[in-house]
Design a protein that fits this description.
The chain has 9 helices and 13 strands. The protein is of the alpha+beta class.
């Protein structure tokens, strides 16, 4: 019987309820799947026919170690998604590369360590803006600020991240998040699977509603993407380095811009929640995609 490791973190050694749905789906296909903590040095990754990256939600605390782990695993077995894709995707400067390819990305200003943290101002025409690090997960170190308020607190946030050697992103807060919400379009095995709506996460001046643990709890509902969202998602995943056909899963997070057209907030290729419980066929679709790669 083929065996698959579902890589996770110490905080979720047995996976969450969503990802555990994958285990019986794989069993139906004759594949044994077990959770395995990526930082556990006693795990023999070569003993598995494949390693699927799932809940490695603590990677941002030591991204170099995580990238080294992906390369080591890929050297001894099949890693999904591939290490090169994960390295590209775990630094959100990939958004700049996608924007340069003409993709509809939320306007983003990047500041690098050494840049002047006072030499910027919020984008005109937007009520609020968001400050966050380019390497992060679960909305940690992410804050929303009012554009018409004094910038001292926001600039101190930026300065603190830069002084810690972290690249900073400054983006307008798109107000449609509070009304229409964010749409996540999910692809499994290279095919569209399902989509969900995510409610707003950020309150002004509160870090991701104050993150406790590795991520912010989200309000999730099923959603059918509009034709514009589906078209944008398809064009975006076509830009994945190495080819979309090589990734097991992809999640495209979209928000309507001021003109109502979808803009990319994030392209999740590393450890996204796949919301498998929000579509009855999703667990088996993912299991079938894993079996096909084996």
């Amino acid at each position: 019987m083929p065996s698959v490791a579902l890589a996770t973190c110490r905080e979720f050694p047995l996976l969450d309820d969503e990802d555990r749905l994958l285990i019986p789906a794989l069993a139906e296909l004759g594949i044994a799947a077990v959770p395995a903590v990526w930082t556990n040095e006693s795990v023999d990754w070569s003993s598995f026919d494949a390693v699927v990256v799932r809940e490695t939600w603590d990677y941002s605390q030591d991204r170099p170690a995580f990238i080294a782990w992906t390369r080591a695993v890929e050297a001894v077995t099949l890693l999904l998604n591939p290490a090169a894709v994960i390295e590209w995707n775990t630094d959100k400067r990939y958004l700049r590369a996608l924007a340069e390819q003409g993709m509809p990305v939320v306007p983003t200003l990047f500041l690098e360590p050494g840049d002047d943290p006072t030499g910027w101002s919020p984008a005109e025409g937007y009520v609020d803006f968001v400050v966050k690090p380019a390497v992060s997960a679960g909305s940690r170190d992410t804050m929303r600020y009012a554009s018409d308020a004094p910038l001292d607190e926001a600039r101190a946030h930026v300065r603190g991240l830069l002084d810690a050697g972290r690249t900073v992103m400054i983006q307008p807060y798109l107000e449609a998040v509070d009304t229409i919400g964010e749409t996540a379009v999910l692809f499994l095995g290279g095919q569209f699977s399902h989509a969900i709506r995510k409610g707003p996460l950020l309150t002004r001046g509160v870090e991701g509603e104050r993150v406790e643990g590795l991520f912010v709890q989200e309000q999730i509902d099923p959603r059918d993407p509009t034709s514009a969202e589906f078209d944008a998602a398809r064009r975006i995943v076509a830009c994945i380095p190495g080819g979309f056909e090589h990734v097991l899963y992809a999640r495209v997070d979209l928000i309507p811009g001021p003109d109502g057209m979808p803009q990319l907030l994030e392209l999740e290729l590393t450890e996204p929640s796949l919301f498998l419980s929000h579509h009855a066929d999703a667990p088996m679709r993912l299991a079938t995609a894993i079996a096909a790669r084996l």
